[in-house]
Design brief:
The structure holds 2 protein chains of 2 kinds. Chain A is of the alpha/beta class. Chain A has helices at about 45-55, 75-85, 105-110, 120-130, 145-160, 175-190, 205-210; strands at about 5-15, 20-30, 35-40, 60-65, 70, 90, 165-170, 195-200, 215-220, 220-225. Chain A has one domain: 3-Layer(aba) Sandwich (Rossmann fold), CATH 3.40.50.300. The chains are: A alpha/beta, B alpha+beta. The structure holds adenosine-5'-triphosphate (ATP) and magnesium ion. Adenosine-5'-triphosphate binds next to strand 1, strand 2 and helix 1 of chain A.
Chain lengths: ~230, ~400
């Protein structure tokens, strides 16, 4: 299978006043279609920065970022937004659900950017909620759901538009062990049975074990990765 | 695009109750501005209507040439007959011209409100008064008689001043007068006057000249002939005006002043309210930063986000505008107010909140909302998605 993500000599620098901070140093990375990658490393090593580049939320200072066959470092802001809508599903540590919307409406949000009819949107959202095991909570507001349930809704939202890859930044960072295991099990199912490519940042070695591959970052560079299972 | 915009906007509007504290800053601030604007404009409108009601196109007022108002005009007694003999003046059944030489003088009466002395116009008119001003109707009592100190009181003045009921006696300087009638003249400026016989007033106040001559004409179209006859007469130096024209000129200054106050004070307050709105919307945007960043990450464009901020600002502004207009209407519409009128005496008029004024108020509210929403909307659109997602 081909690579879904290819990073070539990617550098990311922030300028704060006169001070220039290089957060990523000439980084190369390939991720194959259908892979499940756990990105680990100490705080401040650049994991989120890297994930944001892959997810098209940010642009590199140098180098090429090719994701889903597109040079996304060359896309304009509006084109990049359309590209994200089509190709990327995001899962955040704090779920980032819209508090005023029901679970169902939250999951439908990405579908508002497609040409689906209202009925199709409803049906697809319900399917996604069924996959994450929350079909019976479709009408609940986020405040009426537990943390684990909210993260499931967020995962349903990330996968409802059938994106090319799922990008998860510490998806279990705010959950207890048991709930975290359920969420990770869910991601594993999405990877193994639905063929979703997943890139997940985590601090938790146990969480990383659910992935096919672990990558370690330190001070803005990847250290030797290892294959799991 | 429409779908996205609608969804984001509705979602945002539904969240307003959660930001009640900051949202009410816009609503209350704008309500205050609009209430002030609406009530002062209502004052200007009420005043203008009152003054504009005084006057008929077929009635003319003659003043000394160059004088703007009755107070600084004078007309010699022997000129009265010349003026009333001019062509175009209507005659009564007995063949006498319908017109009066009049004087106005300012007297002081205690107000009902606080008993403080306030100016009121005492007009000296003549026995033709009823024919000359048919809109002037007696509600109680009778007309004054010549040669005795009797007067009739306008309904507005009767409401405004103490001790001016039928039969009561009023003393001005060294003369005592009896109120023999109360009249209404349909809300025009005469409603705020006292009227007595001109010769009696002249002798009581030791005056010998008239200040104006008002004549009823055969028809509105007779005015030109009447005016030409007077202005070409070498023995007269007079200005001749139709009544509506005269009263419009009289009210122009105050209407202008009130409009100026409305827009000047309203404008200053509007600037204050705009900063309030700006502040509210900035805080609304920053409290929504994570939400907005998440939407942008999902792939929503900047336009729906900008529109949702504007929609919120405009909705709150309209709410404030409606509230302000409603309050002004509730508390002030129809309220009687008095002010210095044409002869530096009190004119009673009612605040009139017209639909046009309410619309002006709402436009101002929308304008404030639009400006108050502009910069926050731009900030929302430019929000750095990555940073907003990092922030806890
Ligand atoms: N906008 C920015 N301006 C300047 N420096 C930044 C900016 N964003 C991130 N950084 C710096 O980049 C470095 C990497 O940050 P990043 O968030 O990618 O780390 P991380 O590995 O995700 O850490 P954590 O595990 O704590 O989430 C940090 O030192 C951070 O301070
Ligand atoms: Mg991070």
């Amino acid at each position: 299978m081909g690579n879904i993500v290819s990073l070539r000599k990617v550098a990311k620098r922030y300028t704060r006043g006169k001070e220039v901070v290089e957060v990523l140093h000439s980084l190369d990375l390939d991720i194959a279609e259908g892979d499940f990658v756990a990105l680990m490393g100490p705080s401040g090593s650049g994991k989120t920065t890297l994930l944001n580049l892959i997810g098209g939320l940010d642009r590199p200072t140098e180098g090429e970022v090719i994701v889903a066959g597109e040079h996304i470092d060359r896309l304009s802001g509006a084109a990049l937004a359309r590209w994200r809508a089509r190709h990327v599903g995001f899962v955040f540590q704090f779920y980032n659900l819209m508090p005023m919307l029901s679970a169902q409406a939250n999951v439908e949000l990405p579908l508002l950017l497609t040409h689906l009819s209202a009925a199709q949107r409803r049906a697809n959202a319900l399917t996604a909620l069924t996959i994450v095991g929350l079909a019976d909570r479709a009408r609940h507001k986020p405040s009426e759901l537990s943390g684990g349930q909210q993260q499931r809704v967020a995962i349903a939202r990330a996968l409802v538009a059938d994106p090319t890859l799922l990008v998860c930044d510490e998806p279990t960072g705010d959950l207890d062990r048991r709930t975290a295991d359920e969420i990770l099990g869910l991601l594993q199912v999405l990877n193994r049975e639905h063929g979703k490519t997943i890139i997940m940042v985590t601090h938790d070695p146990k969480a990383a074990e659910y992935a096919r591959r672990q990558l370690h970052m330190d001070k803005g560079a990847l250290v030797d990765g290892q294959q799991v299972s | 695009m429409l779908k996205q915009t609608l969804a984001v906007t509705l979602m945002n509007l539904r969240a307003i109750p959660q930001r009640l504290g900051t949202s009410s800053v816009i609503v209350i601030g704008i309500a205050g501005v609009v209430a002030v604007l609406v009530s002062v404009l209502a004052m200007a409108t009420g005043f203008h209507q009152t003054v504009a009601n005084s006057g008929r196109a077929d009635r003319a007022i003659v003043l000394r040439g160059g004088s703007q108002a009755e107070v600084n005009s004078s007309i010699a007694r022997d000129n009265l007959l010349t003026i009333l003999d001019a062509p175009g003046v209507r005659k009564d059944a007995a063949g006498r011209p319908i017109g009066c030489g009049e004087i106005v003088t300012i007297v002081n009466l205690p107000t009902i409100d606080d008993g403080n002395l306030s100016n009121v116009t005492l007009r000296g008119s003549c026995g033709q008064l009823a024919a000359l001003r048919p809109e002037l109707k007696l509600i109680e009592g009778r007309l004054f008689e010549p040669a005795v100190r009797e007067l009739i009181v306008g309904a507005g003045a009767a409401q405004q001043f103490r001790g001016v009921t039928l039969g009561s006696r009023i003393s001005f300087r060294d003369s005592d007068w009896t109120v023999v009638g109360i009249f209404s003249s349909g809300g025009d400026a005469h409603d705020s006057e006292l009227i007595a016989d001109v010769d009696t007033v002249q002798s009581a106040f030791r005056r010998s000249l008239y200040q104006s001559v008002t004549a009823l004409l055969d028809a509105p179209s007779s005015f030109d002939a009447f005016k030409d006859a007077l202005t070409t007469n070498p023995t007269l130096t007079v200005d001749v005006k139709r009544e509506p024209e005269y009263y419009a000129e009289q009210s122009k200054q105050l209407t202008k002043l009130l409009n100026f106050i409305a827009y000047f004070v309203g404008g200053i307050m509007a600037i204050g309210a705009m900063f309030g709105a700006l502040n509210t919307m900035y805080s609304a945007v920053s409290s929504r930063a994570r939400e907005i960043a998440t939407l942008r990450a999902i792939g929503f464009g900047a336009v729906p986000v900008v529109i949702s901020v504007f929609a919120e600002a405009l909705l709150l502004a309209l709410l404030g505008g409606a509230l302000g207009a409603a309050l002004a209407w509730l508390f002030f519409n129809g309220n009687a107010v008095s002010t210095l009128g044409a002869n530096f005496s009190q004119v009673v008029f009612r605040l009139t909140v017209t639909p046009g004024i309410v619309v002006s108020g709402l436009w101002l509210a929308l304008f404030i909302g639009l400006l108050g929403g502009l910069f926050p909307a731009v900030r929302a659109a430019r929000l750095p998605v990555v940073d907003a997602l990092r922030a806890q």
